[in-house]
Design goal:
Helix content is 26%, strand content 35%. It is an alpha+beta fold and 216 residues long. InterPro entries: DUF4279 (IPR025459).
Length: 216
Amino acid sequence: MTEQQIKQLLAQELANPTFGVTQQFLAIHRILHEEGLPVVRRIAEAEAGIVTAYMAVEGHKFYLAISIATTAAEIVDITTEAFHDIWLRASSEELTTAQMLTLTHLTPIRQYNKGDVRMGTFKHKQSVIDFQPRYEPDTVGSNLYNLLSLLEQDTKGIRDLAAKTECVVRVASYFHNGNGMLGGHFIDASTLKRISNLNVSVDFDLYAEGNSYLDE
């Protein structure tokens, strides 16, 4: 299937739902539209012959995720997928960002020094550098994999950074509070080994947003 054919199939499902979950979701939320068309943030191959389209939801971070069998050109699954913001933060009360950056050749996405002013009068109490790959809608496992792959481009540097600063992988996930059951994150053994090899910690923040499904 072409991308255009996939988007046509998505539009058809939104206009005339064939899945009960589509009807339930559209009863409480609206898909974001631009120029009259539903906004698809990403179409990704989930497995052989299956792609998942991540559709933007008005006013929220999570997605409506629709999986399509490309050979049969039919929808096979519809669910919601959380927005996962995952990055590595190195922080220190003693070192400046310049000193921290001498330990790794990776380029941070943001940085600030202890004492820098933020929002008027507030001053940062630590120096911070953050590392993160380019964001794409995906599962928490895939986003974590991508971050670790970035950090492993300079494993020694990250280990050196972890020895002299507080290095924490931050995971902030924004789930749809559809039925009050958010589920949780699963990290497989190979990923745990990769995290351990970098000598970094992991911190999870889980958020629930959106409207609950209507009672039957």
